[in-house]
Amino acid sequence: MAPQLDGYFKQVDLMADSFISRLRSAVAIPSVSADPDLRPKVVAMANFLEAELKALGASVEKRLPGKQPGHPNLDLPPILLGRYGNDAKKRTILVYGHYDVQPALKEDGWATEPFDLTVDEQDRMYGRGSTDDKGPVLGWINAIEAHQKAGVEFPVNLLMCFEGMEEYGSEGLDDIIKEEASKFFKDAEAVCISDNYWLGTEKPCLTYGLRGCSYYSLTVSGPAQDLHSGVFGGTVTEPMTDLVRLLATLVDNKGKIQIPGLNELVAPLTDEEKELYNDISFEMSDLFHSLGSETSIHLNKEDTLMARWRYPTLSIHGIEGAYSAPGAKTVIPAKVIGKFSIRTVPNMEPDKVDELVFKFVGAEWKKLSSNNTMKCELQHSGNWWVASPKHWNFSAASKAVERVFGVKPDLTREGGSIPVTLTFEQATGKNVLLLPMGSSTDAAHSINEKLDKRNYVEGTKLLGAYLHYVAEEAQV
Ligand SMILES: C[C@H](N)C(=O)N[C@@H](Cc1c[nH]cn1)C(=O)O
Ligand SMILES: [Zn+2]
Ligand SMILES: [Zn+2]
């Protein structure tokens, strides 16, 4: 099966160093979508990808989604639409990835410069975006180049959609996907997204579900400016005190969400679904390895996986305006903004979640009898997604995993969110597969994010092999 793959694999091995250089150039561009000041860098990253694709003979079009909501002077970065190959006899596959990254500062605790790809003696490649999602996006480009250099015919027509706002709720992308479903994406027969992670470090997986994400801010303000706590402490209602009390009402320290009605929206667990968890290759030690601690809420694998995949969670992320530098500044912050998000699951409707959140926060605020002002706002939300893995798209990926890694992949769901997955499925009407490249220890979104060289190189083989098996599936 797929005999041309041997030549392709050999070429990928030969090109490993140049693929790492490509990743180094990409990581060096701090394309942080959440930081308006770094928006030119997000655009620079789009230009980098466009140039790489064009150099390989792909055609690239840009779609400009307009201004960022709430920022009338800030342009959203371009959405890149690429095409490689246009042969009516071949299958057409649409792949999606994102070229923006989470924020990263050395002083957050990184051991190396976050935007300087650093490879250690165990071939771990550290850098912001290495695994999420620059490595996987470059994996598709590497696959095109290795086919060309090996003289192996590219097995499918490849459509590409790469965006620069995924880490900020994919602002502007939904409308463009809907618009292009009958235009640029019209030939697509299936969709593949490489933007999540294996459950452990050894066994690859194929993913058929994601949680949604509804992200909120809580703004508490009172005094006109920050105050001296010695002079004004005890005389003023402190916004920070109000905010921490309010945040503390949302969730207990065992992860139980305290918002009435929210847990009742969750689809009940069936016996059939419960069975699925037994067979998944995952140990609590995998979790401890990823956490770097043994501070888990649950004691066994099943409860842990269910908490990650099929139950909602509420996380408190940070407080803007609070004093956070080292030292002991005795300030009373005048205005603080708390940030929290809820990962949503079937059958939670985002509008209903918002309604319950606003009602609860309003009631808890009232109980504080504060004379400060409080505003609770939705920042962005994206829906959950669960699909059927019984499709040729998944069979092709399963064969590719077996060919590259010699094992059958686990079928998993993912606790994270890729808001546009559901949009792709609904707008194109095609099956969507998530085919991860990185492992559970990659620390996406965290300090010291990395991608193992093995995952990058074998992952590039995997993406190419998947396309070959997709082409074979067409002949069945
Ligand atoms: C799974 C994917 N690589 C990812 O990290 N997605 C983000 C998407 C998001 C949602 N709100 C803000 N960003 C995530 O799951 O946090
Ligand atoms: Zn991602
Ligand atoms: Zn991410």
From TrEMBL:
Residues at which Mn(2+) 1 binds: D132, E167, H445
Span of domain Peptidase M20 dimerisation: 208-365
Site (Important for catalytic activity): H228
One Gene Ontology molecular-function label: metallodipeptidase activity
SUPFAM superfamilies: Zn-dependent exopeptidases (SSF53187)
Domain of life: Eukaryota
Binding site for substrate: D195, H228, T330, R343, S417, H445
Entry-linked Pfam families: M20_dimer, Peptidase_M20
InterPro entries per record: ArgE/DapE_CS, CNDP/DUG1, Cyt/Met_Dipeptidase, Peptidase_M20, Peptidase_M20_dimer
UniProt cofactor note: Binds 2 manganese ions per subunit.
Keyword Metal-binding: yes
Keywords: Hydrolase, Manganese, Metal-binding, Metalloprotease, Protease
Active site: D100, E166 (proton acceptor)
Homology family: Belongs to the peptidase M20A family.
PANTHER family: BETA-ALA-HIS DIPEPTIDASE, CARNOSINE DIPEPTIDASE 2, ISOFORM A
UniProt name for this protein: Peptidase M20 dimerisation domain-containing protein
Species name: Tuber borchii
